Amino acid sequence: MGENHYVTSPDSHRAGFACFVGRPNVGKSTLMNALVGTKVAITSSKPQTTRRVIRGIVHRPDAQLVIVDTPGLHRPRTLLGERLDSLVLSTLTEVDVIGFCVPANEPIGKGDRFIAGKLAAVKKTPVIAVVTKCDLASKEQIAKQLLAVSEIEEFADVVPVSAQSGEQLDVLADVLVRHLPESPPLYEDGRLTDEPEQVLVGELIREAALEGVRDELPHSIAVVVDEMLPRADRDDLLDIYAHMFVERPSQKAIVIGRKGERLREVGTNARKQIEALLGTRVYLDLRISVAKDWQRDPKQLRRLGFYD
What we know:
By secondary structure, the protein is α/β, with parallel strands linked by helices. About 35% of the residues lie in helices and about 20% in strands. It has helices spanning about 30-35, 80-95, 110-120, 140-150, 170-180, 195-210, 250-255, 260-280, 300-305, and strands at about 15-20, 55-60, 65-70, 95-105, 125-130, 155-160, 220-230, 235-245, 280-290. Helix 6 runs antiparallel to helix 8 (about 260-280). The longest helix is centred in the last third of the chain and has 18 residues, at about 260-280.
């Protein structure tokens, strides 16, 4: 369990950091959202869309579990890819416990083994194998998968869960908390994320933009929220001015859609999610521009929020 052994009394409080790692679409963000109870990480049916390290916080009387959402480990192809990978590996060494996610309903593949190998190299941090999507698998499938998973590496624990039905979520939280050091809460009660709200709003807009565009690379869209402010004459309405960037005019045309229909739909869907997140009515002003090859340009990456 690493060097930080804490002698804890039964009524002591624990607090610390956990993260979930796994290949794309194994249910990491969904699991985090289910544990935290509020939608914070961007979830999309396309791989590689979680780009920022978003923290969700699970508050319990006995513990505070801060969940760091990492992008997937993948072999980098662009400057952005390299930045994502270094972000992942630095995150792994800074957390108290890692949840390695494998879906119950798919055979273990090369990608899973590749990631398990990377995790095994992070010697000081305990790794818990989390078998996700158990609602999509039979009891036999789940039993087989638990066995197969425990044969890949030595894991501190193996826990089957379903984020959809909520089954075993409390067990997983207990197991994660067991690996945290004794500590007072790290964040004041009730705060669900330490990301500024503008970043979360940007992620929700980006998610809405990705939803219908199956054939375009998700990395080609970035969103910057320029301004968020209450409407002067109304305290129940928030004005949000956001700018979406794509890399090529052809992508801009796809996001806008026929007669602007697609962009209107994106705006409507994003607005609903933002209203749910912030608990207030929202007016969303959404523009779209082409920023040529922004993924490969360090200056543009910085401007769009990807720091060195």
